[in-house]
Design brief:
- The chain starts with 13 loop residues before the first helix and ends with a helix.
- Helices cover 40% and strands 14% of the residues.
- Strand 2, helix 4 and strand 3 form a beta-alpha-beta unit.
- The longest helix has 15 residues.
- The protein is an alpha/beta fold.
- Bound molecules: S-adenosylmethionine, 6-(5-methyl-2-OXO-imidazolidin-4-yl)-hexanoic acid and iron/sulfur cluster (SF4).
- Iron/sulfur cluster binds next to loops.
- The site of S-adenosylmethionine has 17 residues, from loops.
């Protein structure tokens, strides 16, 4: 593959993205690995840590989510954390080797009354020398500017799936709503973190539809999380998948590889779902272009591999944690 094929493009057609999915697996992974090393050191993987700063009781009905008030998942709702407690968690994350810290809130949208508190958390985390990321639901243009001014580097807001499957996943927020928040984030000068979930019962065409939507955004996501559905009992999609079975691991790796090919310069994040992935499957994902993971024993509300398990994985695969400057230079 030449450097040209590793150059970012914004004119992908859905058919082209589907054709990538249909390539012989070995060819697909080889091409994705080649593009990956055009832009990144393939031995480096970024470690990011998540914290749920406001948990549960969410007004949205995302069919996979433990935190929606629409479903009985047994999750205990908690109010917005105090800034000092968030900063203590960020310090612990840094001490544990994370270079990026992402704060998540179970909100439909950020409320203006909470913005000053969020700004204090963000500037505090930034002052620790960590890359900052937040995911707080929908944002107005003005709120995006305020978060940027506080020192927010990345805003995470996922499209979740392709446009055709979207209505099967959530009905309280439209695809267009999501695209508008992403526009506000870009306009404020922040980097976007935007991806989706694989394994919700969607077809390959929907996975291609998601990656097509991301690859044709005015600016590619700087960070592209590929989540494997964590099936949560009590959620419609979690319960359905527990009956129907999880996605084929090789199809998941294909999704990672296609993400790397259509958004060649993005940090491709092997996000939720690692808890049940074998070291071999994760190795294939890294080979196919994933170069970022969440570390620490918990994602937002669900389990994640413990630090020592990931340290063993890094040693086994001769991987090194990426330093913040490397990720920034790539963006
Ligand atoms: N409430 C905010 C929002 O949705 O915009 C932010 C938090 S939300 C939990 C962040 C993302 O996590 C979702 O968009 C979804 O892609 C992912 N996610 C949530 N629950 C998940 C699950 N059970 N399995 C995999 N990914 C999940
Ligand atoms: C993303 O795409 N994945 C992360 C992050 N963005 C915020 C969240 C995963 C959440 C998994 C389910 C949970 O722990 O509640
Ligand atoms: Fe709320 Fe976010 Fe969960 Fe949707 S994914 S229910 S918006 S916390």
């Amino acid at each position: 593959m030449t450097r040209d094929l590793a150059a970012p493009r914004h004119d992908w057609t859905l058919e082209e993205v589907e054709a990538l999915f249909a390539r012989p697996f070995m060819e697909l992974v080889y091409d994705a690995a080649t593009v990956h090393r055009t832009w990144f050191d393939p031995s480096e993987v970024q470690k990011s840590q998540l914290l749920s700063i406001k948990t549960g009781g969410c007004a949205e009905n995302c069919g996979y989510c433990s935190q929606s008030a629409s479903f009985k998942t047994g999750l205990k709702a908690e109010k917005l954390m105090e800034t000092s407690a968030v900063l203590a968690e960020a310090m612990a994350a840094k001490a544990g080797g994370a270079s990026r810290f992402c704060m998540g809130a179970a909100w439909r949208e950020l409320k203006d009354r909470d913005t000053p508190k969020l700004a204090a958390m963000i500037s505090g985390v930034k002052a620790l020398g960590l890359e900052t990321c937040a995911t707080l639901g929908m944002l107005t243009a003005d709120q995006a500017k305020q978060l940027k001014a506080a020192g927010l580097d990345y805003y995470n807001h996922n499209l979740d799936t392709g446009p055709e499957f979207y209505a099967e996943v959530v009905t309280t927020r439209t695809y267009q709503d999501r695209l508008e928040t992403l526009e506000h984030v870009r306009d404020a000068g922040m980097s976007t973190c935007c991806g989706g979930i694989v394994g919700m019962g969607e077809a390959r065409r929907d996975r291609a539809g998601l990656l097509h939507a991301l690859a044709t955004l005015p600016i590619h996501p700087d960070s592209l999380p590929v989540n494997a559905l964590v099936p949560v009992t009590g959620t419609p999609l979690g319960d359905r998948v527990k009956q129907a079975g999880e996605i084929d691991p090789i199809e998941f790796v294909r999704t990672v590889a296609v993400a790397r090919l259509v958004c060649p310069r993005a940090m491709v994040r092997l996000s939720a779902g690692r808890e049940t992935m074998s070291p071999e499957m994760q190795a294939l994902c890294f080979l196919a272009g994933a170069n970022s993971i969440f570390v620490g024993g918990k994602l937002l509300t669900t389990p994640n591999p413990e630090q020592d398990e990931d340290s063993r994985l890094f040693a086994l695969l001769d991987l090194r944690p990426m330093q913040p400057a490397t990720a920034e230079a790539a963006a």
